[in-house]
Amino acid sequence: MPTPAKLVSAVLFAALCWFVADSIVRYTLEEGVVVGPFREVLAAGGLVVGWRTIGTAATGPVGRGNTIPNVITAGVAAAFILMVLALLIHSFGVMIVESLNGSYNSVGKGASAWMGFLMNDARTIAHPVVLGLLFGGGALIGLVAGVVGQRTT
Hints:
Layout: H1 4-27, H2 38-59, H3 68-100, H4 107-125, H5 128-151
Helix pairs in contact: 1-2, 1-5, 2-3, 2-5, 3-4, 3-5
């Protein structure tokens, strides 16, 4: 059921994810790399994860809000969920593109390459600015959604 806390957390987390994607492009990738709709796709994922994770926790089990530690934890958890999902999906997509080009002749080599791409992507985003913005922003959004969840009951 839609609630104000879910709406606020979804919109704020989508905006945070767009800024995180922009910081990845600015701080971790080489100059001149074309990323396409990377920021928008990550923001769309942030919209869904913010609604489902932070918004549900901020609304509370009976629709009357939740405690502050629970919503801050939900914000950090949403940041972690989005990070893991983005890493898995991106590395899998790179592996699929490589396999369609005929780079692998067995499933094991493709799976091994997928894990290699996953580790490379994880090293790419392991920058203090990116991780601090993602997890600190997630905690702050959880706090804001918790306040909205308390105010609307």
